[in-house]
Amino acid sequence: MYREHPIKILRYCIRNLWLLIFPLLRSSVLFPFSPEALLRWLHGAWFDILIFLTILGIAVLRWRYCRFSFCRQFIRCNNGIFFRRQICIPCARITAVTETDSCLLKPLRLVLLKIDTAAAPLPAAELRLWLREKHLHQMRREVPVMQPSSAPAKRRRTGIWMTLLFSFLFSSSLSGTIYIIAFFVQAGSIARDLFFQPPVMKALDEINNAAIHTFYAIPSIIVSLCVFLGACWIISFFVNLLHYGRFRVHAGSGLLSVHMGILIRRRTYLRPGAVNHVILRQNLMMKLFGVLSMHLSCPGYGGGRKSMPVLIPVLTKKTTPLPLSALMPGVSDGSLPKMIRGKRRAIWSFVWLPVTWIGLILGIMVLAVQTAPDMERLLFFSGVIGLIPAVWLLLIRLISISAEHVSFDKRQIQFQYSRGFSFYTITAPLHHVIGIKICRTPLTARNDICSLIIQLRGHRRKRHKLTGISFRQAEELKAFLEQILQ
Amino acid sequence: MIPKQYSTPVCAVRMMQGLTLFLCLGVCSLLFHITGKRLALIVSGACFLVWIAGGLFCIPEILRRIRILIDGSKVTISSGIFFRRTRTLLLHSLQLTILITTPFSRYTGINFLLLRSYGGTLLLPFLSRKDAESLHKELTVCLLNRSMEETAGGEVPHVP
User: Fold this and answer.
1) Chain B residue closest to A299 (CA)?
2) If contacts are CB pairs under 8 Å, which of residues 186-245 in chain A contact chain B?
3) Looking at the structure, do residues A410 and A479 belong to the same domain, yes or no?
4) A356 touches B at CB < 8 Å
5) What span, in angstroms and rounded, lies between the C-alpha atoms of B36 and B109?
6) Which of A159, A333, A397, B51 could cross-link A350 (Cys pair, CB 3.0–4.6 Å)?
7) Co-location of A421 and A381 in the same domain
8) How many domains is chain A built from?
């Protein structure tokens, strides 16, 4: 049995830092400050030392009690002081192993290892170990999923221009720079921590003042908002660049590994049989220029909010995608025969949301201008900013009428649809379909159309909703699936 | 795998009764310390009644009615007094097992086994140390066996 790197003691110390609240409360005797108060405080210093020793002692004990071992068949880990946990993960059940190699940890010869199975709760990994490098090398020799395949692996490298393009496209869902949804949905979580640093705030204030003077015709609040969102987008862009920079994929028989990151290098080894489905993702700009991004659903890979499960960041017409059979055994790359398309008569099912959105904004604008004519300029710009995503969504929905389809044969299913501001093309083996539902409203029932909800096996229960499908065809698909899956 | 049935050991029932009594006494002493004697007496009386009802009748009954049945293909756990709840986990969807033990669990019977599978976790509570360890080992061997069958095939390793 091996122990983790001793630096893990610091990590355990952080968990019990809340105990420092007691010395902090005790230091309240220092107010108002006087020599007597200081003497009194020093007199009780043993209490602070005791708390510190408790924090350190618990951390050291936890570290001593955490041990792990590995062989070709399984990885074992025992941890915990009071509640002793014994975990035994069979290597054949491992879906993903991620090695995180930070430039800060390099001098300590330390690597963070995350081991996941299909049963791992999100976003936590099944097992997180802080390993010494020598143990990692031993593990690479033993654990099959981390071993290079004997067959020559196909290696795909993503160039700097493609990484830049990917970072640009995925730094906001609108492929623009100015809107709040992009900020809160995608860039927000990354940017939030960085944004509230004092130098950043100061610089933004200066840019903000300059912008207000330059765009004097636009209300200052709108300019401030745009500057704020623009800055967040830039931060998000650079974070994405650092995260997905030096992107490489190795694919061979029984091997699939993804390497990425500039400052923090991540190497993820995936078991090809564990891939649930492959997702080709596009936003409107990508759709117009015929560019795709290939993602995959695999337990333990890209499950967090800050990272996407990218397999190939940018796919153009010139680049050939990885063969699907290498990712999901039994799935072929050829086109599928049976096809169900979205119906043109179901146009309202597609566009009702953006049309209502536009109508509401226009209505509110007219009402607000009549009630408060002094704020006309501000209301006008606010309305325009509100209309931009609505029109964008309307365009996406209009395109998805012709793009939406379902194809299937006896082994696999493929469907394309739009959700939010993105288009998705999903390919999955047929036995990964765990649910199919047909939804109808009185209006759609009259037009003989329905919504088809497909649920696939995955670590997140995501529903894929295809609107405007012919009811008869949906029923046929459902019957076919029931027949095949029985 | 030979079908086996497991139930809560008596020591775990006694331990839980002792713990609830300890908790009641703690609450009462705290009340005596903080509030007036009259109020503390009333609340202590109520606590004691609750403990008689819960600790002497409900807890033993709840724990005694937990039944765990394991056969070659599935694990079934049924629990509850009035409303019986039965949950089944098919062994082919099992991914890994986690054994949780506490100090002196040989005498307290507070051992748990977590069965992690696709889409959920099944908790097997209050097993005796011997049962928990043997079950953990047996299920792990079963998992490894299946993994070996799925991959190249070969001898099942010894699990320490």
Assistant:
1) B118
2) none
3) yes
4) no
5) 39
6) A397
7) no
8) 4
Residue A209, phi then psi, degrees to nearest 5: -65, -45
CB A211, CB A227: distance < 8 Å: yes
Q: Which residues from B are below 8 Å from A78, CB to CB?
A: none
Whether residues B143 and A93 touch (CB distance < 8 A) is answered with: yes
Tokens read off for A26 = 């005790």
Cβ–Cβ contact A87 with B under 8 A: yes
A407 and A383 fall within a common domain: no
A259-318 residue pLDDT tens = 888 888 888 888 877 888 888 888 888 888 888 888 888 888 876 666 778 888 887 777
What digits encode the pLDDT tens for the residues A148-181?
665 556 677 777 777 777 777 776 544 444 444 4
A91 contacts B140? CB cut-off 8 A: no
Beta-carbon separation of B116 and A92 below 8 A? no
Residue A9 counted as domain residue:
yes
Q: Is residue A75 part of a domain?
A: no
**CATH class belonging to B70-150:** mainly beta
A445 plus A469 within the same structural domain: yes
Are residues A415 and A393 part of one domain?
Answer: no
Nearest to A169 by CA among A258, A266, A291: A291
CA dist B5 to B13, B72, B106, B127, Å? Answer: 18, 12, 19, 11
Domain boundaries, position A466: 338-343+402-485
Question: Cα(A321)–Cα(A294) distance, rounded to whole angstroms?
Answer: 8
What is the value of ipTM here, to two decimals?
0.80
Spatial separation of the C-alpha atoms in residues A90 and A94, rounded to whole Å: 7
- The dihedrals phi and psi of A317, each to the nearest 5 degrees, come to -65, -30
Q: Would you tell me how many other CB atoms lie within 10 Å of the CB of residue B101? A: 24
